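Request: Could I get any protein with tokenized structure?
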Amino acid sequence: MPRLPRHLRLAALLACCLALPVGAADRYQELYDAHDFFALNKALAADQGPQPEQTQFYAAATLTAFNRTVEANRVIDALLKDNVDTDLTPKLLELRLQNDMELSDYPAALDTARTLVDIYERRDDAKDLQDAQNTAKLVGAVSDVPPQEVLRHGASRISLQQDGKGGWCVPVEIGRQKPCYILDSGANYSVLIRSEAQRLGLEIHKAGVDVGSSTDLKVKADMAVAPVLKVGNLEYHNVVFLVMPDSAFTFKDFQIRGILGYQVFAGMGAVTTLHNHVLQIPAEVPAERVDNIAMDGRVILVQVNAGGHDLLCRLDTGADRTEFYEPYYRLARTELQKHGKPHELRSGGAGGVRSFQGYRLRDMILKVAGRTLTVHNVDVHTTPLDPHGDHLMCNLGLDALEQFRSYTINVKAMSLTLH
């Protein structure tokens, strides 16, 4: 893009600053901090004035959230040319890193992660430095792996299998093996326990990545790559897995051997889950945009209305039940104390099980994707799960989604449809 002469750039900058009220800038930052990309998208669309760099950054963040990664990277790269080392630089690079990971461009992701490490080291930013170093370990272990590719050999109709502990899993093929793994759109990465990766004959790339858990414990993980993974009539190439210690996914009476995370889920394009535990995946994915879901990293966000409040929630096909978090408790404390019952909550994940105090509501009426439903025996946390601050109000689970004949999640159109 041609650059304006300096005196004209200064005039344009002054015009931008004058055209954008301080209240609007504060509002954009507030929505961005809250990860509310739905409201941020609406606010930006209504802003017809000139766009200073900070507003362009919010636009790039919104494009990223609605899975328009290539467009987002164009905006990010243009801004980086004028932000070699400013306060905006690490924010732009974090967005770029997210998009590189989404595109499975691991060499580019490694370059971005290393640049972030350098910036955070010079700025003595211990927390962000640790996160960047951890990401650099992860992508460094697979930096020579080509991007994930999905070949579609027609439509798929996949019957889920019972996993022996009351849940359901997706049958897959890896080499000569035919394991059955949980499909979890809420998992940032696909996961294998170490003994399973070894059983499959996969090469394990040493990484030493620190993986957090719901119990505040951290476990070390390495990486593995499945050259080919088949699901129905889909043929995946270069599928990356975190390799976790067996103990991290071994519980009292069962063991989780594998999880197909967001990257595999996204490769399906659009997934319809039927009431009889069948998945349908189209040969061609509808692409007309709806944008009633958004991405926060690799977490799918959805808007849920409860009691007249629009709430930002995670859409989690790996969770059996819907639960509400501490920000919702603060919002509806009086009603919860009046109608709810004190209840001990338990949360499990990599590292074990953790107990919390909370409330249980007998019934909650929710509005999701234009449909109304009622969830029962709903747990509400009264303490934060994330010590750095929770922005989500709830986790929308299968007890809500499975009330309908079927539901479709389409990450190309960014849509949730309840049939």
